[in-house]
Design goal:
The chain is of the alpha+beta class and about 525 residues long. It is about 35% helix and about 20% strand. It is built from 16 helices and 13 strands. Strands 4, 5, 6, 7, 8, 9, 10, 11, 12 and 13 form a ten-stranded mixed beta sheet that branches. Strand 8, helix 9 and strand 9 form a beta-alpha-beta unit. Helix 4 packs across helix 6. The protein starts with a strand and ends in a 5-residue tail after the last helix. The relative contact order is 0.11.
Length: about 525
């Protein structure tokens, strides 16, 4: 029920004493105010819920439609799956409840197939496959499975002043699934043999302190090779037909979300694959979200004698900043990737320069105006012997009016590695490339469940480092806490030593005995 109280005449005390809820105030316009004259009195808005369990009756998740959330809210070990998957619009409430049970079980053994997760519970295995193999491909889809998680991700974003919407893609290799229908071609080797799989493009919402807030968007497509009959040059192919269009779709989705949170600043952070003119032009049409993209192309610049990279290299030095360069493992030569040498982690001192420029459009967009944008250059002047220097060219719509603004942009870009870690958790922790189903659509459904599980694993890892004061009950069950306390007592550890082991400052938390015990779900 809804009612209004004219505050110029009444206080509304009777409504409040009867447990009505004050939501806010009207604008004073009235129903016939076509020209926004606001000639009516301003009134308080009160509502009263007739049914306390209306969300359950409507098939909604608990807390749906409520306000901002903290990063760790709802992460309790026993209820998190209901929070992140409950009420998914799968066409049948029983499927939605089944999805919650599957996610809860799968998160306890994320690296195993569901037959191993169920541990002999064949009704649970059958329930899993009835969901994954469901014939309704319009209802049981990746976006529908992720919808409750997306809603809670948006609520977590609303609680932040600045949110980084980090985009990136990753190829998923399913070449071994010879009978799987609907896979695409993700690459070829030296013998022209094709690798079959899917391309996953994800937008991960990350707070300015580095905590992942959730998967804002995920699309899993089957790439197709260009037909030999298609003789069009690359520039003549519409952007909607190109693989790079997924970056624009991610940007548009972020723009839609920005309309829901005017108090939160959203910054779309992308790697070099997003450095193409159409992406920058898309932002110009609706600049409600800032862009931060690593430059790939050394373009021509309006009214400048040099191209992009040379121009900013000649700009005056503004400041120096120290950035932690993560270690890098060695990698042999792959089909389209060069061999990579091993690199230890180090603290690199970068020289920072920046300049506002105008990027000229390519020839096939000669009718468009140049794009005004900032370019930020960071280079390691004195790298260690034998190491390649760090050098970044960043294109951004963020106004850089001081060295502090430039350093802030660099800090934001350094958090782009969060999505690399996220994809690594997906592949190594959740082992999504080991999923085996008969169709690509079924694989997408299984991936959708693992996306949220991987996010939760990553959040739990980082929460122990970023928020040491967090109560342990938020992330661990009673039996898990009993295991930890018993282990600490056995080792004669105090609370500080136990925290050091948990957060990884003593030795890796995942390498300790209690971590392995908890991972294996010790219950007796």
């Amino acid at each position: 029920m809804e009612s209004f109280v004219d505050t110029s005449r009444f206080s509304g005390a009777s409504y409040r004493s009867a447990n009505w809820i004050l939501l806010g105030q009207t604008k004073g316009r009235g129903r016939q105010d076509r020209y926004s004259r606001q000639e009516k009195t301003i009134k308080d808005i009160y509502v009263y819920p007739l049914e306390k369990d209306f969300r359950t009756r409507l098939g909604l998740a608990e807390g749906a439609g409520l306000g901002p959330l903290g990063p760790a809210e709802g992460m309790d070990n026993n209820t998190w799956a209901e929070q992140e998957f409950g009420g998914a619009p799968l066409g049948d409430a029983r499927l939605s409840r089944r999805l919650v049970d599957i996610a809860q079980s799968k998160a306890e053994k994320p690296g195993r197939a569901f037959t191993g997760v169920a541990d002999g519970d064949w009704p649970a295995v059958k329930a899993y496959y009835r969901l994954i193999d469901h014939p309704d491909e319009d209802a049981v889809t990746m976006p529908h499975i992720l919808e409750p998680h997306r809603e809670r991700t948006v609520r977590r974003m609303k609680a932040q002043r600045t949110v980084l919407c980090i985009q990136d893609g990753s190829d998923l290799d399913y070449t071994s699934l010879a009978q799987c229908e609907g896979l695409g071609v993700i690459g070829t080797n030296q013998t022209s043999a094709q690798s079959r799989g899917l391309h996953l493009h994800t937008t991960l919402a990350v707070a300015s302190n580095g905590l992942p807030l959730g998967v804002l968007r995920a699309a899993c497509v089957a790439p197709k090779l260009k037909s030999p009959k298609d003789k069009r040059p690359n520039w003549a192919v519409p952007i909607e037909e190109k693989e790079t269009f997924c970056w624009i779709e991610g940007l548009r989705d972020t723009m839609d979300v920005a309309a829901e949170m005017p108090q939160t600043r959203l910054i779309n952070v992308c790697d070099r694959e997003a450095d193409f003119f159409e992406m920058l032009d898309e932002h110009r049409r609706n600049p409600c979200v800032d862009l931060l993209v690593r430059a790939k192309h050394n373009r021509g610049i309006a009214d400048e004698p040099f191209k992009l990279f040379e121009t900013v290299r000649h700009a005056s030095l503004q400041t120096k900043v120290q950035v932690q360069v993560p270690r890098q493992s060695a990698r042999p030569k792959l089909s389209k990737k060069k061999a990579r040498a091993k690199r230890p982690g180090r603290a690199a001192e970068l020289e920072v320069r920046y300049q506002r420029i105008q990027l000229r459009p390519p020839q096939y967009y000669s009718g468009k105006d140049p794009i005004d944008i900032w370019v930020l250059h960071a280079v390691e002047a004195s790298p260690p012997e034998g190491a390649a220097p760090v050098e970044w060219f960043l294109l951004t719509t963020v106004d850089i009016t001081s060295p502090e603004d430039a350093v802030q942009c660099l800090r934001w870009y350094c958090l782009r590695w969060r999505i690399e870690d996220f994809h690594r958790v997906l592949k190594s922790g959740c082992r999504i490339e080991k999923i085996a189903h008969e169709t690509a659509e079924r694989i997408r459904r299984a991936i959708a469940i693992n996306l949220v599980i991987a996010w939760r694993i990553m959040l739990m890892t980082l929460l122990g480092r970023e928020t040491a004061e967090l109560p342990p009950e938020v992330l661990f069950s009673n039996i898990e806490l009993q295991v930890l306390r018993a282990y600490a007592k056995k080792k004669n550890w105090n609370r500080h030593q136990l925290y050091e082991t948990r957060s990884g400052s003593s030795r890796g938390w995942r390498d300790t005995w209690p971590a392995r015990a908890i991972q294996n779900r010790v219950t007796n």
